[in-house]
Design goal:
- The complex is a heterodimer of chains A (259) and B (311).
- Chain A has 259 residues and is mainly α.
- Helices cover 76% and strands 0% of the residues of chain A.
- In chain B, strand 1 and strand 2 form a beta hairpin.
- Chain B contains 11 helices and 14 strands.
- In chain B, the strands form 3 sheets. Chain B has a 6-stranded mixed sheet with strand order 6-7-8-3-9-10, with helices on both faces.
- The chains are: A mainly alpha (259), B alpha/beta (311).
Chain lengths: 259, 311
């Protein structure tokens, strides 16, 4: 595997670089500080901010750096899953949509290596896209003139974002499977949207700790105590979901009939 | 004994109740150009997919270079180039990048391989153009370039001249012939352009409903095809009677004229003319007609379908 992996990684990186989807999703993710900033701005003056102001009051957003970073983490917990899901759907699904999958299946580079390279590229994309957020966030918060800045707070947020990014990255392996079985990116994007919707619903009924796709949002504190307390079992479920998605995707590429 | 490049034993593929390929057994020797003919849905593409390990047989086996083909393994793919499902490419990558990607995944260490493939398929002017804006013909050339890039010993091509203009078709035909004759490359080619296959192939297989109907080389084709002496006369009734008097079995040629399949008539048409003149039914035309591949193919399928209906 190691002899073929560099070539497969190079190929996947080239395809990713030349696509619009990963750039657009990374840019959208990097702009989430603007959205968080908008909410914090509304929290500063809730009476004149209409519905958004009311909402910020309801969830207890404070108009300072701590509130801003908390909100940013919560937005990225859900937005990150959506963005990562779209990129994963694209990385796997485009081979079928572009009708190029057949050209990847009878090569000296084994199929398992190609699938591994795709997953590694998704991990790399996730790391880079996540790293963009704390680069943009201080500028937005600074422009808003928020009180209560501390470097420690920034690093704490970076840590939270990294954990959330890791959880979301683990949770997109079933998306790769859906793109493979569905032979295109649309079924996979459908799965992402369903997973996000179900995650909200499960958190709302207090069962989020048992639904893997709810775990990142709950870990970010988005649902407060009402969403259900996450435990080691919750993280274990995330790990098992990731493992099942990766193993089944690999098996599908190796064994499924390619009609 | 030379190991066949392609060998199938009782190769069978069933999708639910549909039998896509039914007990196919073929052998393709090194350096052969093997034409694989059949109507749409005859089982050509499924056979090709099993040869490439893209689909697992329900029964039987496919062997390439003597080794059993299996999906997912490294297999013999370094020695195989293929173009199936019409040519496609990553639309956002240039022609050069598409080929560079293929070069690396094929483990070809020589970066010059890309330039050679581009030159071979006449794609030099398009090297830096995105594949998404190529014409179908140039996309087909790109697909062929990708199949040839790593100098394979076996080429598996499904409709390789699709979308090519007449000059392109001739170019590809000559290229494949050269690869087979000068470099010993085995070519397994499926096409619906029968005349093209007839010009190129050293052996031809015809399949229908997943079954091998006939497998023949160029000599077989000539022998199997039915040469006929087509006769026309102003008085066809008199001409028919005269020929029957001389012991010929006369059949209709389908256009109202008369046809003789008797070797005596085919070898000595001048005698037939003499008989007709002597019987006061002089011929207005007399010529030997030999069935081309297309007619042979359609006749074979029709016979097979009639046999099927009779069963």
């Amino acid at each position: 595997m190691t002899t073929h992996l560099p070539a497969a990684l190079w190929a996947e990186a080239l395809k990713l670089r030349r696509s619009r989807v990963p750039w657009v999703t990374a840019a959208v993710l990097a702009l989430t500080p603007l959205l968080a900033g908008l909410f914090v701005l509304a929290a500063r003056d809730p009476q004149t901010s209409g519905l958004v102001g009311g909402k910020t009051q309801m969830v207890g957003v404070t108009a300072d750096w701590a509130g801003y970073f908390t909100l940013l983490t919560q937005i990225d917990a859900v937005g990150g899953l959506l963005a990562l899901g779209v990129v994963t759907a694209w990385v796997f699904g485009r081979e079928f949509s572009d009708r190029m999958a057949v050209d990847l299946l009878a090569l000296p580079t084994p199929r398992a290596v190609i699938v591994t390279a795709k997953f590694l590229l998704i991990v790399a994309w996730s790391a880079v896209a996540t790293a963009l957020v704390p680069l943009v966030a201080p500028a937005v918060g600074g422009a808003l003139g928020l009180p209560g800045w501390s470097t420690g707070l920034l690093w704490e947020t970076v840590g939270h974002l990294a954990v959330l990014s890791g959880l979301n990255t683990l949770l997109v392996t079933p998306v790769a499977l859906a793109a493979s079985i569905g032979r295109g990116y649309l079924p996979a994007i459908g799965l992402v949207l369903i997973a996000i919707a179900l995650a909200q619903a499960m958190a709302a009924i207090g069962a989020g700790a048992w639904f893997p796709w709810s775990v990142p949002a709950l870990a970010s504190g988005i649902a407060g105590a009402a969403g259900g307390a996450i435990s080691a079992t919750s993280y274990l479920l995330v790990g098992l979901t990731a493992l099942a998605g990766a193993v089944l995707t690999m098996a599908w590429w190796r064994l499924a009939d390619q009609r | 004994m030379t190991v066949p490049t392609i060998q199938t034993h009782d190769l069978t593929k069933r999708y639910g109740s549909t039998l896509a390929v039914d007990g196919l057994t073929i052998r393709v020797a090194p350096g052969e150009i093997y034409g694989f003919l059949g109507l749409n849905g005859a089982g050509k593409s499924t056979t090709i997919r099993m040869l490439l390990g893209l689909t697992q047989p329900s029964r039987g086996a496919a062997l390439l270079f003597g080794g059993r083909v299996s999906g997912g393994g490294v297999g013999p793919w370094r020695r195989v180039g293929y173009l199936v499902d019409a040519a496609h490419a990553y639309p956002g990558l240039t022609v050069g990048e598409n080929l560079e990607l293929a070069r690396r995944l094929h483990g070809v260490t020589d970066p010059g391989a890309v330039d050679r493939a581009i030159e071979l398929l006449g794609l030099t002017a398009y090297r830096d153009r995105r594949a998404g804006i190529l014409s179908q013909g140039n996309l087909q050339r790109l697909g062929l370039a990708r199949a040839l890039l790593h100098q394979p010993e076996l080429l598996v091509l499904d409709e390789p001249v699709n979308g090519l203009d007449p000059a392109g078709i001739v170019e590809v035909r000559e290229l494949l012939r050269r690869l087979a004759h000068q470099h010993g490359v085995t070519v397994f080619i499926s096409s619906h352009i029968l005349a093209e296959v007839a010009r190129l192939a050293t052996r031809i297989a015809v399949i229908d409903h997943g079954r091998l109907l006939a497998e023949l080389d160029a000599d077989d084709l000539e022998r199997r095809s039915h040469p006929r002496l087509l006769v026309d006369a102003r008085d066809r009734t008199a001409a028919r009677a005269a020929l029957q008097t001389h012991g010929f079995q006369v059949v209709d040629d389908g256009d109202g004229g008369l046809a003789l399949e008797d070797p005596r008539a085919l070898e000595h048409p001048e005698d037939v003319a003499s008989f007709l003149v002597a019987a006061s039914a002089p011929p207005t035309s007399l010529h030997v007609w030999q069935e081309d591949l297309e007619t042979f193919f359609l006749r074979l399928l029709s016979e097979h379908q009639h046999q099927g209906a009779a069963r």
